[in-house]
From TrEMBL:
Residues 129-155, 189-232 are annotated as: Disordered. GO terms for cellular component: cytoplasm; nucleus. Transmembrane segments: none annotated. GO terms for biological process: negative regulation of proteasomal ubiquitin-dependent protein catabolic process; negative regulation of protein K48-linked deubiquitination; negative regulation of protein ubiquitination. It comes from Uncinula necator. This is Putative uba ts-n domain-containing protein. Residues 220-232 have a biased composition (Polar residues).
Length: 307
């Protein structure tokens, strides 16, 4: 019957060496399947060591003189067993240790009983494989969720870094433009001052040649033209965040992006927009965050809601 049991195990999809070891340890097809299920996570080397060291340590009650042992009986539960291999397997599974030899012969299974038993074992094997497939699928979904979450976090971090780099580049370009405008203005003022000095010198020389007093420049009262921006160099800000109120005084040329970075470092939350209460206005996105405090109208002071 051993070869038939081996063929059945091979038909169930078990490797030959593992199936042979299971039959050696279990004795019957049912016991071999139980043994395989119990030891499916161990390696062949580990299983071989267990089998070699798994000697049965039980109390055996011998037959009376003249009787021939044809089977074994578990004294703890009364179960009848066909062979010593079955006794060892029963001891391993149940922990029972008291057995007796019996002269009673256990009738072999009929062909119908064998077929029914085999079909039962096949059904159990299919059920176990189906359950394992469900577990594997659930584990695969779980791992996929973890992978997707990790991928999204990495992508979000890359996007935040790219946005920060973009804002820095915009701020740098804006500052370079402002520096260029200021330099051109200084040059124009110097040219105008030199031109005015030459004009005054020429008029004075002409008056001296003609024997006249040097003309006196009329005094004018200079009036300041209205300007849409404050001449203050700093902005005093009152910032209302979800974790409390912050007060800051920053240079007027600080960008909203730089302000957001400072708030994030102190409050521990990313900043996506600023809102003024009166007049109601919202600043968000790359274009708005590239503006300076002066350009946004926050100079000399402003109250902002931070989100």
């Amino acid at each position: 019957m051993g070869s038939t049991d081996l063929e059945n195990l091979l038909e169930f999809g078990y490797p030959r060496n593992r199936a042979q070891l299971a039959l050696k340890n279990g004795g019957s097809l049912q016991n071999a399947l139980d043994w395989l299920n119990k030891n499916e996570s161990t390696t062949m080397q580990e299983q071989s060591v267990v089998c070699e060291s798994n000697e049965l340590s039980t109390d055996m009650t011998p037959l009376k003189t003249g009787e021939v042992a044809k089977s074994m009986v578990c004294d703890d539960c009364g179960k009848k067993l066909r062979s010593m291999m079955a006794v060892q397997n029963h001891n391993r599974l149940s922990g029972h240790e008291n057995f007796s030899e019996s002269s009673e012969e256990i009738a072999p299974l009929t062909e119908e009983e064998k077929a029914a038993k085999l079909e039962e074992l096949r059904a159990k094997s299919r059920e176990k494989k189906a359950q394992q497939a469900i577990i594997d699928k659930q584990e695969q979904k779980k791992n996929e969720k973890i992978r997707m979450k990790s991928t999204k976090e990495v992508q979000d971090a890359k996007e935040r870094l790219a946005q920060q780099e973009q804002m820095k580049a915009i701020a740098k370009k804006r500052q370079e433009k402002l520096d260029d405008i200021a330099a051109k203005k200084r040059i124009q003022e110097r040219i105008s001052a030199d031109k005015e000095a030459r004009r005054k010198k020429a008029e004075a020389q002409k008056a001296e040649r003609e024997g006249q007093a040097a003309p006196v420049e009329p005094s004018f009262t200079r009036t300041m033209t209205a300007s849409s921006q404050s001449t203050a160099t700093e902005a005093r800000l009152r910032l209302q965040t979800s974790s409390g109120t912050l007060t800051k005084t920053l240079p007027a040329e600080t960008t909203l992006f730089e302000l957001g970075q400072q708030i994030q470092a102190e409050a521990g939350q990313p900043v996506t927009k600023f809102t003024t209460t009166f007049p109601r206005k919202t600043f968000s996105g790359t274009l708005d965050f590239s503006k300076t405090l002066r350009e946004a109208g926050f100079v000399p002071s402003a109250v902002l809601i931070v989100n």
